[in-house]
Write a structure and sequence with these properties.
This protein is of the alpha/beta class and about 650 residues long. The structure holds fe (ii) ion. Fe (ii) ion (FE2) binds near residues 193 and 215.
Length: about 650
């Protein structure tokens, strides 16, 4: 396998079209004509100066052009105004098409028209991605030279007919229609990840480990982020893809819809890692976590399908078809994959520590959503502090790209944002008219009433305020339950979420009480990592439990719905300062029950994007067995006017994305 490649003179820094501009240099010379001060297409036509932009800039980030999770984010004068995911508008999970609706939502929130956007910042380099797609192999040095030598204005003038719906070129073309006079900038994909992580972190300077499927032609990068610079020092080419291996095995296990890797992570604790050696023979690695599949694999359907066949032959276990029962061998393969993933990530983190000599780490990129691995890095002691990006997957890259441009234009600015609990989307709007018939009288506050209903074992939909950015529901679009109820996990999974029974739920726990229940290593405001239930709360488990069902249903503690079979839990520690409204609700629940946590799962059914509007919440409510719906400041009873068949048929429309 190829080892980590030191970038040396080829460092990916910021936008890498010449040296980054420094504000002091810029302000000292109003005629500065460095790369950023150069108008990108025609100065005469645009009548535009980059230096004007520094004084009052609206920077629109656009991300998702690599094939999933299209998203947008808007910074005005360095302040994060809004960030949205396109899937929340089109209702197609992981939407890959150009994020037109998300962009308009961001602009509406700021009260700006498209003509008021000073620059569009893309979270991918289109020419470099195109080159990789054409060649099918990483071309690191050539990629870098391309970024240095080819003017960015060529991107939308020389490649107009590239027609893949999600390609970076298509994104550029669509954006040009929407923003005919706006300059475009293109950030390296991994720098976009790192930048978003850094801006939300408490660090002034840190190493970053970015790990995903692919960004341009690399799969992993290690670098340093500060308020003034974000640069990649080492990188691994796509073929060294730990993310690629995880995706391949995920598909092999029959979870073949985009973004299903977390299901394998959830399945892993039920198995034994008996296939580790065989998987390692298929994808050996070196001491620093540079792993390489023994056959060439790309993220294309044909390539993946051939690789799945090869993997089945190698493991001597047939690939599982979607919806087939899970065999013990398949569960053990999931456990083995997760074991390898954790070991490799730890090797990479160790290398990052040595290579950067930094004491704090940012863990980002799509693979950072593996909250079990994130927890392992924290507990490893390799770094003093570890911050896992709350928007680690591509849905946070628009934010990162916008921040990079802002950082480049204002190099003294520090590049920090106030994520406000990552409630960066829109409000739900008013309840539909028909809901008024089912509105309940509230004695006291909505929090008190909802807490009482939860304590009575009811399932409550909770839709209040601006919605969350990212994959997790953080208490703005959530389905809530009482973790003490023994069968709550199967009720929620099978009757409400319409998903696999083994999938665990996350506890949202008051931050001030988390240490009493879990071995929490610092805050997890955004469900970034898993912690383990303290031994004093565990029940003893008899030896000899076998099979998924037996292991799943044996109660392991007082709060069986939020603790996995290995006593792990993906915590959301809820702080009053970060999530005040949600904190108030859980505090009321604690007052009634003595338990400082509730189940928090996203408000959707399997395969459906999280609900955004009041209308979407109402429809999901009516077609599931959620008992009550809190919508803004009102509580509604479920009309229960749908048959089981109607409910399952409604949920089936999302099945292909589940
Ligand atoms: Fe990515």
């Amino acid at each position: 396998m190829r080892p980590w490649q030191h970038q040396g003179g080829f460092q990916h820094e910021l936008l890498v079209l010449g040296d980054p501009v420094h504000s002091d240099a810029a302000s000292a010379n109003q005629d500065y004509h460095g790369p950023l001060s150069r108008p990108p297409i025609s100065p005469a036509k645009r009548n535009f100066r980059w230096l004007d932009m520094i004084r009052g800039s609206a920077i629109l980030g656009i991300g998702g052009a690599l094939g999933h999770d299209a998203n947008a984010a808007l910074l005005v004068d360095g302040r994060l105004i809004s960030a949205s995911q396109e899937e929340r508008f089109t209702r197609i999970k992981h939407e890959w098409n150009f994020p037109r609706s998300a962009i308009l939502d961001c602009l509406n929130r700021a009260g700006l028209g498209p003509e008021r956007v000073d620059v569009c910042a893309f979270a991918e380099k289109p020419l470099q991605s195109l080159l990789f797609d054409q060649v099918g192999r990483p071309t690191s040095r050539l990629t870098w030279l391309l970024a240095k030598l080819v003017p960015e204005e060529w991107v939308d003038s020389r490649f107009p007919r590239h027609t893949q719906p999600w390609s970076p070129m298509t994104y550029v073309r669509e954006a040009r229609r929407m923003f005919p006079k706006t300059p475009f900038r293109f950030a390296w994909h991994h720098l976009s990840h790192a930048s978003a992580a850094f801006a939300a972190s408490p660090f002034e300077q840190a190493a970053f480990l970015c790990l995903d499927g692919k960004g341009e032609d690399i799969s992993a990068s290690i670098g340093i982020a500060t308020g003034k610079r974000t640069k990649i020092l080492y990188e691994l080419p796509c073929e060294n893809g730990l993310g690629l291996l995880y995706t391949l095995v995920t598909y092999y296990l029959g979870f073949d819809s985009l973004g299903s890797e977390y299901k394998v992570m959830g399945l892993a604790p039920f198995g034994e890692p008996t296939f580790v050696q065989k998987l390692r023979d298929f994808a050996p690695s070196d001491a620093n976590g540079a792993l390489r599949l023994t056959r060439h694999v790309n993220f294309t359907p044909t390539s993946m399908s051939q690789a799945i066949d090869a993997l089945a032959r190698h493991l001597s276990v047939a690939a599982r078809k979607r919806k087939e029962p899970l065999s013990n061998a398949h569960i053990d393969i999931a456990a083995s994959l997760q074991t390898i993933f954790e070991e490799e990530v730890l090797k990479m983190a160790r290398f990052a520590r040595k290579a950067t000599r930094q004491t704090d780490l940012l863990f980002c990129g799509g693979c950072a959503q593996n909250c079990v691995a994130a927890g392992k890095i924290r507990r490893s002691g390799l770094f003093n502090r570890v911050f896992t990006s709350p928007v680690s997957s591509d849905m946070g890259t628009a934010l990162g790209a916008a921040l990079l441009v802002h950082q480049e234009l204002n190099s003294s600015c520090g590049g920090k944002i106030d994520p406000n609990g990552f409630y960066l989307g829109c409000e739900p709007g008013d309840a539909p008219l028909e809901a008024s018939r089912y509105r309940l009288p509230i004695g006291g506050t909505v929090h008190k009433t909802a807490a009482r209903l939860l304590a009575e074992g009811k399932v409550v939909g909770w839709v209040r305020g601006r919605m969350e950015l990212g994959a997790r529901a953080l208490g703005a679009r959530s389905i809530l339950g009482d973790p003490r109820v023994e069968d709550m996990q199967s009720v929620l999974n099978l009757k409400i979420k319409f998903r696999e029974s083994f999938r665990p739920f996350a506890p949202a726990i008051l931050a001030e009480d988390s240490a009493e229940w879990f071995d929490a290593e610092g805050p997890s405001n955004y469900m970034e990592y898993t912690a383990y239930l303290l031994p004093k709360h565990r029940y003893s488990v008899p030896a000899g439990l076998s099979g998924l069902s037996e292991r799943l249903h044996f109660p392991r503690c007082r709060l069986p719905s939020v603790v996995h079979v290995d006593y792990s839990a993906r915590l959301q520690t809820v702080r009053r300062s970060v999530h005040p409204d949600f904190h108030k609700l859980i505090s009321e629940f604690k007052r009634l029950t003595g338990v400082p946590m509730i189940i928090n799962t996203s408000f959707n059914v399997s395969g459906q994007p999280i609900v955004r509007t009041a209308e979407e919440a109402w429809q999901c409510f009516r077609h599931t067995d959620i008992d009550y719906l809190v919508l803004n400041d009102a509580i509604y009873d479920n009309p229960n006017d749908k048959t089981r068949e109607e409910k399952t048929s409604w949920a089936r429309q999302f099945e292909k994305y589940s």
